[in-house]
Write a structure and sequence with these properties.
2 domains; elongated; 20 strands; alpha/beta; Nitrilase/N-carbamoyl-D-aminoacid amidohydrolase; seven-stranded mixed sheet
């Protein structure tokens, strides 16, 4: 099942080493590979020179040691015959009277290939060139090893024939160089890179190393699996901590605990489909001019694990980092400030409902006016009570506006709406879409007319989630002069308000708290007999689900089947049939409401997803979405 969704379980091992004791190390490697198989790992790597020890020093040139290494490799090759896993071991390999620091790749009784180290460090505490040659010195790409012809190259791609996977290998210093081999192998198709390393510890080096791995993963759009030698290497002059890292370009990263006296394994379910989709969208990483002689070793792969250990956030847009939240608010604030400057500092006209969206937009307006040192009275905030307005939302609107120092105006839309009903011959007691949209368009008309009167612009309040679902009245709240929430999803709106609220006090803090506790509602239908206001989520489903769908659908173009699978794993508070029903609503509304998104006003992009037709989303208004509904029916 997980192969169908593109997941591959990869691992990094730090083996408990006995320096120079190849026989013991081989037994430990076999035990750890067996453990990896039990954990469902499909490909796993050990550290650099893990078969004998990185700190073997001059003994690396010893004939007895090398014979034992070859014997150990033969033992691992025979051992791998019945093992359904690919494992990578570090070993010294002789080629034409020179020694190379290599990664040896085993699968099912064969050596898939050998990748030698390109950059051999010879500075500070490192003096590898005393023993090893760089891969650039190789004059052949084939060697006979253990009775078979094996490809050896630092530009070797390991390509799977039955799964969209290609991996390559770096060795330690290769990662630290500007022209790392994986810079080139990833351009040629490698979406997964393993690094066999022996990186010693000095103060502060761990953070540098961690950042190198994460940046290399991000810039090459590949998953990067890093395994470094542990503390059983010699500590005569330097200490190795056994640092393992698995990083994905999405930012998902796991690490082990360093300084362990035991062998340890970490593994991650890497989303290969997600990586490949990013590559399809992001072509610039391939715009590199070079000419290397690439070699390819092919293999097939069986995805054995059937449970996903990776955890997905219920709110993928959400950040709990206060600095990140402040950054989002700054982007919104200064985008609006730039527009105000362009228009010679006009007044801002905004409708305030007492809901979260208009609250956030209003708070951004206040911040923008403060940043430009403009009079807050030029923020004209208008509350427009209608047939569904509650005392709670009205009071919160007024308190927020007045206490913030903006200009408060109240204009009821009831009489105008009733007159319009009469003009078009609509029964005022018929609570249908005409009843609702009449009010939304009347409010928008008021905002634009007052903007004309005051020499101002209308600030849009609609958020990303509403744009995705088309939950806006065409030419009503759908329209404005500039939208500050256009790429802020519903689940993030409330977090941003909470972030601002926490820095406030008194009436504003209390008001923002109550706004956050108010159900999401357009308040276009009368309050029911129990005093309850209209509830949006009862009509379209929970926004927490819709935002989850939206993120995976637009950010990674995941299939609906995969999105459904991930949602069922992630949300235990909803039954599977509830998730399926909500996903069906999402699909129908997303495609049928594109006509609204194709003519949205300017609005700022904040995160990785936006739906502006001028930026991120190109989609015709009249596409068929039957294939998506069919996929949902078949779930």
């Amino acid at each position: 099942m997980l192969k169908e969704y593109g997941f591959l379980r990869v691992g990094a091992i730090v083996n408990k080493l006995e320096l120079l004791n190849v026989e013991k190390n081989v037994e430990t490697i076999k035990e750890l590979v067996d453990k990896s198989i039990e954990l469902g790992i499909e490909i796993v790597t050990f550290p650099e020179l893990s078969i004998c020890g990185y700190t073997a020093q001059d003994q690396l040139l010893n004939e007895d040691l090398y014979n034992n290494v070859i014997k150990g490799l033969k033992e691992l090759k025979n051992y791998s015959i019945t093992k359904d896993i690919i494992f990578i071991v570090g070993a010294p390999i002789r080629v034409e009277n020179a020694l190379y620091n290599c990664a040896v790749v085993f699968k099912s009784g064969k050596i898939l290939g050998i990748t030698p180290k390109t950059f051999v460090p010879n500075y500070s505490e490192f003096y590898e060139s005393r023993w090893f040659c760089s891969a650039t010195k190789l004059h052949t790409d084939k060697i006979n090893l253990l009775g078979e012809e094996v490809t050896i190259s630092n530009m070797l791609l390991y390509k799977c024939t039955n799964f969209p996977l290609t991996f390559s290998i770096d060795l330690c210093e290769d990662l630290w160089m500007a022209n790392s081999p994986s810079n080139f192998t990833t351009v040629k198709g490698a979406n997964l890179v393993f690094n066999l390393s022996a990186s010693n510890e000095t103060v502060g080096k761990v953070n540098y190393r961690r950042n190198l791995v994460k940046v290399q993963s991000a810039k090459t759009l590949s998953a990067y699996v890093y395994a470094s030698s542990g503390i059983y290497e010699s500590s005569s002059d330097i200490l190795f901590s056994g640092h393992s890292i698995i990083a994905e370009p999405s930012g998902d990263t796991i690490e082990n605990e360093r300084f362990s006296l035991k062998s340890n394994i970490i593994f991650q379910d890497v989303d290969i489909f997600r990586i490949n989709n990013d590559r399809i969208k992001t072509r610039t990483y391939e715009e590199l001019s070079f000419n290397f002689d690439y070699k390819v070793s092919t293999f097939d792969l069986s995805i054995r694990h059937n449970t996903l250990t990776k955890k997905y956030s219920k709110k993928p847009f959400l950040s709990h980092d206060k600095n990140a939240l402040e950054e989002i608010l700054n982007i919104q604030t200064y985008a609006l400030a730039r527009r105000l400057l362009q228009l010679n500092k006009p007044k801002a006209v905004i409708g305030i409902s007492g809901g979260s969206d208009s609250t956030l937009a209003f708070l951004v307006c206040i911040r923008a006016f403060k940043a430009l040192d403009m009079d807050l009275k030029n923020v004209i905030a208008i509350t427009m009570p209608g047939f569904g307005t509650s005392d709670r939302t009205y009071t919160n609107s007024k308190n927020l506006i007045v206490e913030s120092g903006a200009t408060f105006r109240e204009i009821s839309i009831k009489d105008a709406a009733l007159l319009h009903f009469e003009n078009i011959g609509h029964d005022k007691n018929k609570f249908d879409i005409t009843y609702e949209n009449t009010q939304a368009r009347e409010r928008t008309q008021i905002l634009f007319d007052i903007a004309n009167q005051e020499g101002g612009i209308v600030i849009g309040t609609g958020d990303l989630s509403e744009l995705a679902l088309g939950w806006a009245t065409y030419n009503g709240d759908h329209m404005s002069n500039y939208g500050v929430n256009s790429s802020i999803p519903k689940t993030l709106v409330t977090t941003l308000i909470g972030h601002i609220r926490d820095a406030e006090e008194g009436i504003i803090k209390d008001t923002l708290t109550d706004i956050l506790e108010t159900p999401i509602s357009p308040e276009l239908l009368p309050i029911d007999e129990n005093g309850n206001i209209q509830n949006t989520e009862k009509s379209v489903g929970p926004y927490i689900l819709h935002d989850f769908f939206l993120y995976h659908f637009l950010r990674y173009n995941a299939s609906l089947k995969k999105i459904y699978y991930l949602a069922c794993l992630t949300f235990d508070e909803y039954k599977n049939e509830e998730i399926k029903a909500c996903l069906t609503i999402f699909v129908k509304r997303f495609f049928t409401q594109q006509f609204k998104r194709n003519c949205v006003p300017d609005g700022i992009k904040v995160g990785s997803i936006a739906v502006s037709p001028r930026g991120d989303l190109r989609l015709a208004s009249d596409v068929s979405y039957k294939m998506y509904l069919k996929e949902l029916e078949d779930l």
